[in-house]
Amino acid sequence: MRKIKLAVDYGSICGGCDVAFIDAGEKLIELANAAEIVFWPAVVDGKEEDLRKTREIDIGIFFGAIRTERHKEALEQLREKSRILVAFGTCACYGGIPGLANSVESRVLLKKGYVATKSTDNPDGKLPGFEEFKEAALRLPRLRSLVSPICDFVDVDIWVPGCPPPVESVNKLIDVVKDLQEDQVPPKGLFIAEGRSLCDFCEREKPEVLRIKRFRRVHEGEIKRDECFLKQGIICLGPVTRGGCGARCIDANMPCRGCFGPVPNVEDQGTRFLSAVASALMAEEEREVGEEELRKLIDELPDPLGLFYMYSLAASIINRRYLDLEGD
Amino acid sequence: MSEEFEPKIIAFLCRWCGYAGADMAGTSRLKYPPTITPIRVPCTGRIDMEHVLRALKISDGVLIAGCHTPGDCHYVRGNFQCFKRVTLLKKFLKQMGINPARVRLEWISATEGRKFARVIKEFTEELKELGPLRGVE
């Protein structure tokens, strides 16, 4: 059987997606048998030259969000050469945690990183130069003003959400590669995840009508193992998050943070959750409680941005900082 | 800001109070600036915050007008639903560098044509002061 040409390139990554592949264990032998790896910095000793010289690749997999100009170039090159492009991991699909940087202007980020932190010794306030280092033939890629998911620039054929994607997802993707050997092409827009929300797969007891008396953080008191987190007042993004992760966090008695991205037909995961959780607060008792008291209860959620948009800010409706207010 | 800037406001008006209040302003021949694009909704509780964010992307401010709390809502507690959502949404907007004053929630009953006209006037002035809504490019 013919070998499938496979390449992996990176955007803004933490390395977790590479590790997710390692977790697949023996299944990797099947991948090695089915595919010829043209380029994959963490796995084979290919250079970028090799990728540039290859005319066509069967399947290109992209990890990470688009943070710098170099990421964008890498993505565009991979798309151009690949018959099938895979967005692997939440950063590639939705911007992921790096996307939270969109709540700050890039110049503020640079200043914080290179000047303002206490441990930095930089009396002249010099920011990283983007000029070329001719002697070393080096060029520092420029930071883009926004972090973006890859679908902002290219067509995506297969989506594999998860931070990182679980072993089951990696296995399914390896099966896709094996199917390609027999010219079985997956449907465009395939999600290697479920089409329903995480709540559908969660075995905790859920109330008929959800009412939240007050919000509680995970370290405040004991968390019951068999009862819905939201009923206990703990923020859990299960209702708006795509299932398919195997409910790993839920089983470990930790609420969902939303890494699988929004359920189908929802564009804005955070706002959808915001609407839902606000409705549940003191539901059917609002009249007795009154506006002032409700406002106080809502103030107990100090960071809706970080909680509701932890993984999807870059792919949301309001996906960038606006310039109305001062500060970072 | 320059004198020419004319803010654009998208107004979600509840069918029972806010929209009727706008009608009242009209039949009473009250004057207010032509800055609003009204959208009639069954109840302020029907307004998804996604609608508000989408509206903000193509305007300078969003007005939501519904029935007075605690007891005027035709559907018992739709106005409170909206109040809770908008209160939480404003916190998010602030974190993203958007002045929360750009989303304004007002209770305007069917008889309060005057209040409707006053709110539009005030909000328009306030938005003129703030200038156009600009994001990082």
Spans where pLDDT lies below 50 across 5 or more residues of chain B: none
CATH topology of the largest domain in chain A: Rossmann fold
What's the overall geometry of chain A? globular
Q: For the terminal residues of chain A, how far apart are their CA atoms?
A: 56 Å
Approximately what portion of the residues of chain A adopt beta-strand conformation? 5-15%
Number of strands of chain A: 8
Q: Compute the number of helices of chain A.
A: 12
Average pLDDT over all residues of chain A:
92
Q: Give the percentage of residues in beta strands of chain B.
A: 15-25%
Number of domains of chain B: 1
What does this structure look like?
- The complex is a heterodimer of chains A (328) and B (137).
- By secondary structure, chain A is of the alpha/beta class.
- Helices cover 30% and strands 12% of the residues of chain A.
- Chain A has helices spanning 16-22, 27-34, 48-53, 69-81, 90-94, 106-116, 167-181, 248-251, 269-280, 286-289, 291-298, 304-308, and strands spanning 4-10, 35-39, 57-63, 66-68, 82-88, 143-148, 158-160, 190-191.
- In chain A, the strands form two sheets. Chain A has a six-stranded parallel β-sheet, with helices on both faces. In chain A, strands 4-6 form a two-stranded antiparallel sheet.
- With 137 residues, chain B is α/β, with parallel strands linked by helices.
- Chain B has one domain (9-130): Rossmann fold (3-Layer(aba) Sandwich), CATH 3.40.50.
- Chain B is built from four helices and four strands.
- Chain B has helices at 18-27, 49-57, 78-95, 113-130; strands at 9-14, 36-41, 61-66, 103-107.
- Chain B has a four-stranded parallel β-sheet, with helices on both faces.
- Chain B starts with 8 loop residues before the first strand and ends in a 7-residue tail after the last helix.
- The model of chain B has no long low-confidence stretch (mean pLDDT 93).
- At the A-B interface, helix 9, helix 11 and helix 12 of A face helix 2 and helix 3 of B.
